């Protein structure tokens, strides 16, 4: 089997990606290898390729919303020790990989033992990470022809989800689904989704799919009000245009899901929207610090400010089932994988509405 792959490799923060060879991790008995057909572009790709969150471990192959066809299966996968859901995966089957590709999976790890692998202290991202093998092999992502990694973090894709629509669900989808599920969004609840973009447009849909009484879209301007309504939102707040919006919507929300990455967002105003014991969940990850906050914004109603990191493998599986059942589908623009540099530039300039998905040649038709 080939021990080098070809993909779109980044060698610095200031140079375009180059289609060339790289060496993936050694193939192990619990690994799966995939021919990539699709890969979504995530904001994380931009931050990483530009070293925006800190120095990137170049060379780097980004992309962690991967769909592909299984071409190789490790001999221990049919009797996988930690994940029964993947034991009967077959060659040629359509699968996906999200933002995480490894964790320690040890029984004495509190996060892994609780099925919360995304919070493992030894979590490995699907790219720009290091595996726990003796060589500390690098992890490489989906802007490529192939992917290889632990089967524990590989997911079957429901037949009803087309590949180009399933890809963004594996990161953006689970990133919004997991906290909505965790904080009890369902009948009787009102949730506000801050930011109507790659994450937020799925947040609105998952809020409705989970049965919330009311889902409110929140943005600086009214330019996305029509989009929010088309996604199923029951109301809309334009914080930069509506005078007194904080008072009008005070104590209306059970949960606020914040997908934006703005250092100057009206943080205190957002917290006014929460009911007593309400929860503000940050999922957008800015390169800058969040705005300062006065203690009374927390004390007056006992609100909670927290964050959420992607989702566990269990969350991904549950999310895919719900998306298939309820028709939660991202709004995407399809691009050829060979046009990845242009697509990344357009993503950086905010031109995505609301997700770009890269496709690999003839395989993308499958």
From TrEMBL:
Oxidoreductase listed as a keyword: yes
Cofactor(s) the protein requires to work: Zn(2+)
Keywords on record: Metal-binding, NADP, Oxidoreductase, Phosphoprotein, Zinc
Annotated GO MF terms: alcohol dehydrogenase (NADP+) activity; zinc ion binding
Record-annotated Alcohol dehydrogenase-like C-terminal domain positions: 198-324
PROSITE patterns: ADH_ZINC
GO biological process, one term: alcohol metabolic process
E.C. number: 1.1.1.2
Entry annotated with the keyword Transport: no
Domain Alcohol dehydrogenase-like N-terminal: 29-159
Catalytic reactions on record: a primary alcohol + NADP(+) = an aldehyde + NADPH + H(+)
Source domain of life: Eukaryota
Listed PANTHER family: ALDEHYDE REDUCTASE
Family to which this protein belongs: Belongs to the zinc-containing alcohol dehydrogenase family.
Quaternary structure annotation from Swiss-Prot or TrEMBL: Homodimer.
Listed name of the protein: alcohol dehydrogenase (NADP(+))
Organism: Penicillium antarcticum
